[in-house]
Amino acid sequence: MIEFDYSELTPSERALQGEVREFLDRELPHGSYHPALGFHADKDPEFSRKLGAQGYLGMSLPKQYGGHERSAVDRFVVTEELLRRGAPVGHHWVADRQSGPVIAKFGTEHQKQRFIPGIVRGELSFCIGMSEPDSGSDLASVATKATRDGDGWVLEGRKIWTTFAHLNDWAIVLCRSTPVAELTDKRQGLSQFIVDLKSPGLTATPIPFIDGTSDFCEVELDQVFVPDELVLGSIGQGWAQNTSELAYERGGPDRWLSSYTLLAELLRLHEQQPLPDRFADVLGEALANYWVLHSLSLSVARSIDSGGAPAVESSLVKEMGTRFEQDVVTAINGIVDEAPNMSDTSAFVRLLISATVTAPSFTIRGGTNEVLRSVAAKGLQPSGGKR
Amino acid sequence: MTAFAADDLVADTVDRLLLDLCSPDVVEHAEADGWAPELWNAFSESGFPWVSVPDTAGGSGGTLGDAAAILHGIGRYAAPVPVAETGMLAGWLLAGSGLEIPGGVATVATGLSLQGGHLVGDATVAWGARSERIVALVQDGAAWKVASVPTSALAIERGANLAGEPSDLVHFDVTSGGFDLAAAAEGVDADALLQRGALSRVILSAGAFRALTQITIDYTNERKQFGKTIAGFQAVQQFLVNTAQCSVRVNMAAERAVRALAAGEPGIAIAAAKVLTDAAVAEGTRAAHQAHGAMGVTREYPLHQLTRRLWAWRHEYGTASMWRRRLGTAAHQAGADHVFELITD
């Protein structure tokens, strides 16, 4: 049975929330930056370093490598505050959220010492090397090949949708290290490698995104050598490691806050003046949904902290949270008086255009909703007649 | 099952009672007969209808969370008993004003007025004809007062909500000696009653949604087509996921709203919960019915006992449109930089 235990922030978590708010009020006053739409945000290494110095990155990582060993709820509190302001989290986002924890869990002592301190400081940036041109939802079908060569591996293939691959430092790349023909299950024989994005033979080419940005890349790996010391975890265990990388992050606030800044800017336009009823209706509906999604996400984070495995719950939240993010954009498009014009530089119109054209990606990235529904449905089991 | 109550004893006891006494047949008969006497008597003997009403005032004691656990059970089993009316609403008004709590059903009427000491007006009253007392919150100058009227003194036209539960038109024209009148407790006004009534519908709906999800999962895991259970089809799984998501949202909203009210700081909680419930009713009943196919729209299969109640309750204690606009106004007042605090606080 699915369980979302009700939870509230403790006094110390409230205190953290207060500190983060104060810090961000100071660092990101309104008008000093372009608010982003969720984690599809600008890369600002300077801002990431400041967050690191403040102790807001690598929060769950081990102290011996510079981490803070704080809870999933603490991280939830910080993430919520960053995303609702549309903070420029692009530089550290993947490293902090995904690569750091996966290295802490599966990495060697050498890898932990080498990478985690830089991630915690907000310096090192990472990419996710999962999807390929012919391998999306069916991730076990990845074709990028890893071949044994001396004291390392040679990678050959293509990765795609690799955000900031042309600018970032490292990528964790999922490869096939044993051909499918030699296996009974194609989820076997996969391995993960920590790949230097400046390696000889690696080419990252931006793919122009629908909103005109060029952060997405295609990465070509042409005989890229990776030494043994950069194999992540065990050869052949890539599928299990990769699954754990995805599982619990699905229920976070990044899955329902992507269009929040658009709503906030709409509200800003109506400050000091009457709010038309149709705007109040849209705001009211959205507010109710944010209010409950906050509680659901908090419940998932709390469950992780108490040793739970809320994979089904996370999938349910991501599936409805991302649809809601789109609904907000649709609803706001339904009430604005003027057609958005590309020449308009106001924060609201800029966000409206960007949100409208990028909203379709909300329910695709990080696992399409169709696949998520299958994951979630596994948790919906008969009760034996109990209500 | 539900975490409303401080301990699970109340919820477990209610669940056992409902499992024993509130089969779909009992619900069906109550709709035809207008009453489920055995079920009400069992509730009454256990004191459940008066939970959250202080025992010093003649109630059963316990917290609002305990009362919510009971209402959630009533929602799960579509139980035709006026517990929300008797305790959480009428009992709350009576206890707050020091008036006597009747031993039988009590219910509430809104929109009445005091004219020269007479209580007048027409009101649609849930379980009106079944009640022993009808309790009204009326304005007397600037003050709010609680009027408690013996139902026997009233002219009543029977009606029912779309779930077939009594919803009667009651004509009030009662002279000053014909009812009890006392000052309402501090903070009790029409809006407080509206919020509390709305919360009762949210909790009942949360229970109904829990059961709706479960029977939809159960049915689709039994029903076979094309040689396999229909729960194995992706298209059907989508309905299961939608129904479960609606249930999860409404249940979380109900619990957060109960806690907010119990802490004396309802804020936007009840408005948000009512708006969410209304949207979930539209989405969740559609998904659950579609997953059931034609069986779900028959009277013999109990899905309708849940969905018809959800469709009925959405109309009670404020329309979604009213609550939505109220939330939008709260967002506007908070402003762009502070509206997020409404979400997290």
From TrEMBL, chain A:
The keyword Magnesium does not apply. Residues 10-123 form the Acyl-CoA dehydrogenase/oxidase N-terminal domain. Keywords: Flavoprotein, Oxidoreductase. PROSITE patterns: ACYL_COA_DH_1 (PS00072). Transmembrane segments: none annotated. Signal peptide: none annotated. One of its GO terms (molecular function) is acyl-CoA dehydrogenase activity. Its cofactor is FAD. SUPFAM superfamilies: Acyl-CoA dehydrogenase C-terminal domain-like, Acyl-CoA dehydrogenase NM domain-like. Residues 127-224 form the Acyl-CoA oxidase/dehydrogenase middle domain. The keyword Oxidoreductase applies. One of its GO terms (cellular component) is plasma membrane. PANTHER family: ACYL-COA DEHYDROGENASE, ACYL-COA DEHYDROGENASE FADE34. This is Unannotated protein.
Automatic annotation (TrEMBL), chain B:
GO terms for molecular function: acyl-CoA dehydrogenase activity; flavin adenine dinucleotide binding. Transmembrane segments: none annotated. Keywords: FAD, Flavoprotein, Oxidoreductase. Residues 9-94 form the Acyl-CoA dehydrogenase/oxidase N-terminal domain. Its cofactor is FAD. Gene3D superfamilies: Acyl-CoA dehydrogenase/oxidase, N-terminal domain (1.10.540.10), Butyryl-CoA Dehydrogenase, subunit A, domain 3 (1.20.140.10). Signal peptide: none annotated. Coiled coil: none annotated. The keyword Oxidoreductase applies. Residues 194-327 form the Acyl-CoA dehydrogenase/oxidase C-terminal domain. The keyword Oxidoreductase applies. Pfam families: Acyl-CoA_dh_1, Acyl-CoA_dh_N. Belongs to the acyl-CoA dehydrogenase family. This is Unannotated protein. It comes from freshwater metagenome.
